[in-house]
Design brief:
Elements (H helix, E strand, L loop, with lengths): L1 H12 L1 H13 L6 H9 L4 H5 L1 E4 L2 E4 L9 H17 L4 E6 L5 H9 L5 E7 L2 H14 L11 E6 L18 E6 L6 H4 L4 H4 L15 H10 L5 E10 L5 H11 L3 E6 L5 E7 L1
Parallel strand pairs: 3-4, 3-6, 4-5, 6-7
Antiparallel strand pairs: 1-2, 7-9, 8-9
Protein name: S-adenosyl-L-methionine-dependent methyltransferase
Keywords: Methyltransferase, S-adenosyl-L-methionine, Transferase
GO molecular function, one term: protein methyltransferase activity
Length: 277
């Protein structure tokens, strides 16, 4: 039966990719039978959900549906951001990740920056995401701690679209030194064209960014424009969709009066907007 399913997978992915994925599934520590794993992949389920993990820099991040799977382009700019912060910051950073998902961005920052230099918080509207991010914090060794010599990350369930965010009772409060976000940025026309492996498995709330894909950038810009929300010299780093960089730059320059620059991803696409006060 496995050979039949593998033939179906080869027909879907091509022989080379199917053989590679089959090797990864055979090596997986999952309790799911190999035949079931193959059947799920043939049905179009993302490999990361089947393997239940995704490499992210030196970390192994646990993933499960419907929480957004960490992408290579996100890994790329997070590593670059950590390298910039390593060179430029000598103080302990208070970090807020908006729409944290698996927690991959702040956890990679915790991993790459000096011990005791990062206290990170993640916000997500999804209870599944908050639970998974909390689990990843423990797996990566960055759970909340009273030990100030350790980096730490803590996730909370909340919506940063709420005008009253952050609530006093939430457990996280400004000012912050760094805001990061890979927000939902898929526009309605793009959402209708998403491949089955994305649209049928990953949370729409983590993908759809409004009719033009820019709703969450407006919300983030309004947040960071608030008095005392950011410390002097704070940085905002947001991932953007293909063709959105110029629009997101304008949002931050007009709404938050911040200076901006654009970072390219490994495929030379304008992927990240960096804003500074």
């Amino acid at each position: 039966m496995t050979s039949v399913t593998l033939a179906l997978l080869s027909a879907r992915l091509g022989k080379r990719q199917a053989a590679l994925e089959y090797k990864w599934m055979k090596r997986a520590t999952s309790e799911v039978p190999l035949e079931r794993m193959l059947a799920r992949r043939v049905a179009g389920e993302p490999l990361q959900y089947i393997l239940a993990e995704q490499p992210f820099g030196p970390l192994t991040i646990k993933v499960k549906p419907p929480v957004l799977i960490p992408r290579p382009e996100t890994e790329h700019w997070t590593i670059r951001l950590a390298e910039v912060l390593n060179r430029s910051s000598a103080r302990t950073l208070s970090v807020l990740d908006l729409g944290t998902g698996t927690g991959c961005i702040p956890l990679l920052l915790c991993n790459m920056l000096p011990a005791g230099s990062v206290h990170a918080y993640g916000i997500d509207i999804s209870s599944e995401a908050v639970s998974l991010a909390t689990e990843n914090a423990a797996l990566c060794g960055f759970s909340p701690s009273h030990d100030i010599t350790r980096n730490s990350f803590q996730a909370f369930q909340a919506s940063f679209l709420d005008p009253s965010f952050p609530h006093i009772s939430l457990g996280v409060a400004p000012p912050f030194d760094l805001i990061t976000s890979n927000p939902p940025y898929i526009s309605w026309p793009e959402y209708m064209q998403l491949p089955h492996s994305v649209a049928s498995y990953e949370d729409p709330k983590a993908l759809f960014g409004g009719p033009d894909g820019l709703d969450f950038y407006h919300a983030i810009a309004k947040l960071v424009a608030r008095k005392d929300f950011l410390n002097p010299g704070a940085v905002v780093a947001v991932e953007v969709g293909d063709g959105q960089a110029a629009s997101v730059q304008r949002i931050f320059t007009t709404t938050a009066q911040m200076k901006t620059q654009i970072w390219l991803d490994p495929w030379q696409k304008k992927r990240t907007v960096i804003a500074r006060r």
